[in-house]
């Protein structure tokens, strides 16, 4: 991700959000990069109807960016406040979703839209609700 204000973005993602710096490099002409560990990644694929439903639940219907990065946190409300204090713009305050997580949405440094989510149930508990499953067919196993 390109960030015009590299130092501010680094402080935001590393120091406030808590992503661990794995490596950093400097080059000619003030070229700088930091590699931050964001943990395990998943790719959430959704059809337009699902995206509209998520936007309705998470952001009062405000359309999300085409690409949005979500971070799981332990304290959704607290981390949201910390990120706003660090310069993020609040799009939607933390709210409980039908899928039993506490979600907030922010516009963060580097022109990135992010969702913070705090799980309120275990995957097993959530899979007992109608419309939810723990996984599906396909993909790599093991």
From TrEMBL:
Pfam family, one: Glyoxalase
Domain VOC: 1-119
InterPro entries: Glyas_Bleomycin-R_OHBP_Dase (IPR029068), Glyas_Fos-R_dOase_dom (IPR004360), VOC_core (IPR037523)
Signal sequence residues: none
Name of the molecule in the record: VOC domain-containing protein
Lineage, broadest ranks: Bacteria, Bacillati, Actinomycetota, Actinomycetes, Micrococcales
């Amino acid at each position: 991700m390109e960030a015009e204000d590299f130092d501010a973005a680094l402080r935001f993602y590393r120091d406030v959000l808590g992503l661990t710096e794995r490596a950093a490099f400097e080059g000619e002409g003030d070229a700088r990069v930091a590699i931050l560990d964001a943990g395990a990644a998943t790719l959430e694929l959704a059809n337009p109807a699902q995206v509209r439903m998520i936007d309705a639940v998470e952001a009062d219907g405000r359309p999300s960016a085409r690409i949005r990065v979500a971070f799981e946190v332990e304290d959704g409300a607290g981390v949201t406040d910390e990120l706003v204090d660090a310069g993020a713009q609040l799009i939607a305050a933390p709210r409980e979703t039908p899928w039993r997580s506490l979600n907030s949405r922010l516009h963060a440094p580097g022109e990135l839209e992010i969702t913070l989510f705090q799980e309120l149930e275990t995957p097993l508990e959530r899979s007992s609700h109608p419309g939810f499953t723990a996984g599906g067919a396909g993909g790599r196993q093991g």
